[in-house]
Amino acid sequence: MNFNIEILYNLKDIKYNIFIGFCCGIISSYIVSYIPILYTDIIKILIKNDTTKDDNNILQNYIYMYLLYKYSSNIFAAIRGYIFTICCFLINIKIKKKVIESLFNKDLNYYANNKNSEIIDIVANDSAKYADLYTLIINIFFRNISHFFIITYILYNKSYKLYILCLIFSLIQFSIAHYYNIYFYDNSVNATNEIINKFNNLITDYVNKIETYRSLGLECNTYNKLNNYCNILNNLKNKEGYYYGISLFIRNCIDGSVICLLIICGLKLNISNKIIYEFTIYVYEFIHIFNELINIKKDITCKKKSINKINDLISYDKIDLWGNFMYSNIFNFIPNIKIKNVSFAYTENNNILTNFNLDILPYEIIGIGGKSGSGKSTMLKLLLGLYNCDNGSILIDNIPIKNFDKNYFYNNIISYVGQEPVLFDTNIDDNIIIDNDNYDIELFNYIKSLIEDINITNNNINLSGGEKQRIAICRAFMKKTKILLLDEPTSALDEDNEKKVLELINDLHKKYKITIIIVSHKKSTLNICNKIVKIN
Ligand SMILES: Nc1ncnc2c1ncn2[C@@H]1O[C@H](COP(=O)(O)OP(=O)(O)OP(=O)(O)O)[C@@H](O)[C@H]1O
Ligand SMILES: [Mg+2]
């Protein structure tokens, strides 16, 4: 398991909090370590048959001391708990931010290769688990280790022989419980989590594609699948409970056996009864420490997947990062496009484009045709920088696209209407005007002619395919970028609306001097282009 150094380094602003929490934990452990000795002294006087007045005075003092130790150790424990709760939250937020930053820079291949629900899970749950582990290790692990050494110091000075036996007995118990957990309990938990994931993925898919599931009559089938997962989960949980029960039995039986063994060994070694009694109390402390360590191990096993997911995400290759040279605010920008020897495959050995070349002159309207599945949309996505080419390069104004500043590129240089336009859950105007503070009202009023028949007051965006397409086109025009990519912009439109869109494209092309690429199967749409290229 690897913790990400970059994230650890980012903790420097809360390092003092962590340090204070850490110290409080150790002080509290130190004080707690001496409580069994006081307790033994109290018991020793209590079980005496004839106590004198002196005994009672001593007892009173012991009780005051006992209370002092108890209260002071718990005050430190409370401060420790408070600090680590806050630290855990702060670390969680830091990891979330780092994860979001990485997600924002990811190539779309990452999104294609990972399920949406899993990506959302990384932000929502895995980062919290990752943060838990930091505090778990700093807090619980070191506290227990220091507790262990303090007890060792106390016991070793009382009888090193009994101490070694005490340690061996506790270690035997630790090993039995530990390996039992690895071979039975953990496997069972992993299997359960796997089924829970499958269950969640299926229900997410159903909700996302409700119309398809319903219209294909897949609900009965889906219900059966979910039911089947529930049955499997039921069996797995049964098994898990069974293993848990056995582990409780083993642990408790060994606890008792260890105490008896310790007493027998202590008597054989001629050690005083008081010291033997102290050892029987301290052995529980050892067992407690080892159990906490087992729990940490178990927790790490459960959270390992989260750590690996986050590490994979953060250390994912840097090539998808933008802006080696950060070109922005280019004076005299010329929207010419050069696609040079570009090859691209979504999956290995399945090239969609091979050594593809295309030169697009500035201010041209170029049409792209070709068979379904030939790679037209893919080419637009490469031009948009959504995917990285495997080979070759794409230059705009003779600059490799990833050398532009990312914000500048998407806000000023290129805009895009996808083949399946997606609108945001807000009203139509807000879908078109992305930057409310800074937009061209005149242009807005002009392009709205394209959607004047759509009910503008309608706040919910359940519109028809053609309506969505027209709104997406307006949105792209509003950005006033120098290059416009349109993927099947008229596929869902009637003749009238197609005509309107094409007129608008022609007008804006003349007025703003832009380079336009239109992918279309429609001859009527491609008619407005200066040149038509076919992709095979
Ligand atoms: N995200 C993806 N992952 C894997 N393969 C993909 C992905 N997107 C598209 N493909 C594949 O790439 C090929 C080209 O797809 P693309 O969408 O570019 O075709 P197209 O020319 O736009 O087709 P159409 O005219 O039907 O829109 C297709 O065979 C498709 O199956
Ligand atoms: Mg396409």
Question: Could you explain how this protein is built, in words?
Answer:
The chain has 536 residues and is of the alpha/beta class. The protein has three domains: 1-158 and 291-319, ABC transporter transmembrane region fold (Up-down Bundle); 160-270; 330-535, Rossmann fold (3-Layer(aba) Sandwich). It has 16 helices and nine strands. The chain has helices at 5-9, 15-46, 53-104, 108-113, 116-158, 160-208, 210-215, 219-268, 273-315, 376-383, 406-413, 428-432, 441-447, 465-478, 495-512, 523-526; strands spanning 337-345, 351-360, 365-370, 391-396, 399-400, 414-417, 483-487, 515-519, 531-535. The strands form two sheets. The protein has a five-stranded parallel sheet, sandwiched between helices. Strands 2-1-4-5 form a four-stranded antiparallel sheet, with helices on one face. A hairpin with a 5-residue loop joins β1 (337-345) and β2. α2 runs antiparallel to α3 and α2 packs across α5. The longest helix is centred in the first third of the chain and has 52 residues, at 53-104. The protein is elongated and about 110 Å long. The protein starts with a helix and ends with a strand. Adenosine-5'-triphosphate is lined by residues 112, 346-347, 352, 370, 372-378, 419.
